[in-house]
Amino acid sequence: MRLFSRRRTASRQPIKVRRMNFDFKGLEKAGYWYGDDPVATHLLNVLSITFPDGERFFVDAVRAFRDRVDDPQRQKDISGFIGQEAMHSLEHKAFNDLVAGQGYDVLVERALNVTQKLLAGARKHLPPERQLAATAGLEHITAILADTILGHKDVIENMDPSVRPLWVWHAIEETEHKAVAFELYQDVDGDYWQRQRAFLISTAYLITFTSYFTWQFLKHDGVHRQPLTLAKGLWRLFGYRGVISSTVPAWFRYLSPRFHPWDDDNTDLVAQWRDTLPEPAVSSVA
Fold it and tell me: How confident is the model at residue 6 (pLDDT cuts 50, 70, 90)?
């Protein structure tokens, strides 16, 4: 059932593909690179592990239906989405390899294997329309996390300089293309209840995965025996105005039949942070 269907321009600004080739110089000395906090650092590390395979899944889900779009600008936006997600996979793989090299190789490999099995199951058992619905929902989650990063200067300042450009760059690009998968889903199917089922199931899987593997990383470091450190980290994430808890209202907005990603027009944040990025090795505008 489509319920309310809303059509808008797929993006509010050009979707620029940037190949960055980050060197992450100094990461080996950074320790817990997010505010010297093991909980937040490992949560973000675990999220990063999902990105290379997850974003290839997103690309395939979108590419499967791009022939349904006739508008030339929409086609450019889809090309930009595909190009940006491909770059995210490359840069986060390089970051993940460095994390693995800090003594977490077994855990990183386990998390990668679980990610790949989950996505293989989705490819096998879900029809293409549901894969696209899941992509639209997960893109909303990445978009609201991106908004939290760009909209809270203290979040960025808590990141070690060795990794800060990676997360700022990723947040900018997730914002630039945040409507592409959603708009395409509206064109292809637009079924409200399928969109919500996919969103809720994807959220549940993501929470379960990140919670389990963040705990495994903390156990590896012995932090699970440090209740004060755990409490401090959990409060930073889930307490009042926490990094994760502050995204909850935006998460609920996706449940509205009238939802559209650009209801939250945060292009000003992209403009504010874009100039802080290092020069890309290669860039193009879709």
Answer: low
Name beta bridge partners: 284.
17
Quick one: how many helices (H) and strands (E) in the chain?
Answer: 11, 2
Closest CA to 251 of 130, 117, 138, 94: 138
Q: For residues 161 and 283, is the Cβ–Cβ distance under 8 A?
A: no
- How far apart, in Å, are the Cα atoms of 205 and each of 32, 43, 105, 138, 145? 26, 15, 23, 11, 17
Q: Is 134 within 8 Å of 126 (Cβ atoms)?
A: yes
Give the pLDDT of residue 284: 72
Supply 178's token pair: 């945040």
Both structure tokens of 71: 């508008």
Tokens coding 280: 């890309």
All residues at 6 or more sequence positions from 128 whose CB lies less than 8 Å from its CB, including other chains: 61, 64, 65
Q: pLDDT tens for residues 222-263?
A: 999 999 999 999 999 999 989 999 999 999 999 999 999 999
81 exposure class (CB count in 10 Å sphere: 0-12, 13-18, 19+): buried
Instruction: Write the pLDDT tens digit of every residue in 158-194.
Output: 999 999 999 999 999 999 999 999 999 999 999 999 9
